[in-house]
Fold this protein.
Amino acid sequence: MINETLDHPRETSLRPLSSDKIKTVTASTFPRLVLEAEGPIAVEFMSYGCAHCRAIEPVLEQVAEMVKPQERIFRVNIAVEQELAGSYQIEGTPTLIMFLNQNEVGRVEGPSPTVSSVLTAVTQPFESGAEAN
Amino acid sequence: MMMQKQPKPILLFNDECAVCRHIGHWVQRSAQSKSGATNIIVQPIGDDPERLRSLNPDLDIWDAYETIHVLMPDGSMKLGGEAVAEVLRDLPNTRWFAWSFATSIFGFRPFQVILNVAYAILADVRPLFGCESCGKPIVLRPIQWVTKWVKTLFGGSPHPSPHFSSLSAARRRPLAISGKPLPQARAL
């Protein structure tokens, strides 16, 4: 638990500010950036108030770096985009949904916050899809 | 990023947590004098990381949700028990005893330490009092570990369960592109 006064910008020992490696999509940009886009796309449905989402955030950023440019990862804030979350039947956060050519090809709820687990979650659905083809 | 100058301290509270919401509203009510003036501004954290950074460039939305933050007019931030002490100093009803938190004995502030511990305990047990976004309290983690271990023994998934939102499992309504409905998503 942190009890302190920060008088100056954070030092490197503290966690850096969340980066923009994962872009946030909204209901208005979702069709263009996710559904109409080509190639594999993973979307994390999350909320900033969710402790599990916080745990997975740095891992997901790391995985986003590893899989680009073949695959893109976006996030949807369900606290803002409730209708969008409802349309995909999101029951808990974080939920990762993988899309390929407008179709949902995979879904993982609450993946373990480890690189291997998240990497498997965001890549495996596309590998099995490619094998099927 | 330009920082918005605030003339008064700002208390940020997690409005997805029932306990924090009640405390935030209590602070807001208590902070108002009879004339309507207030010594502290109370705001929900919200969902916009950029808005928070405009209040203080060092303020990260994930940190804001993890620990109570008070943003000071001089650009500094108080966190955890220090933030609680600052709030108590700013409220007319609690100001009379809040001086104790600054009392130092050879550099040791005993009342502040007690407050820090009390805040840490409250922060951990919030889920028991209806926090929708705090995850499971630390006191319940041993039970969680045992449950997970037993599940794994019987071939269940060892992955932690996700945080369940208040969103209802609404019937899926696929989004349409250019007026055409999407094909139904493949069942997993």
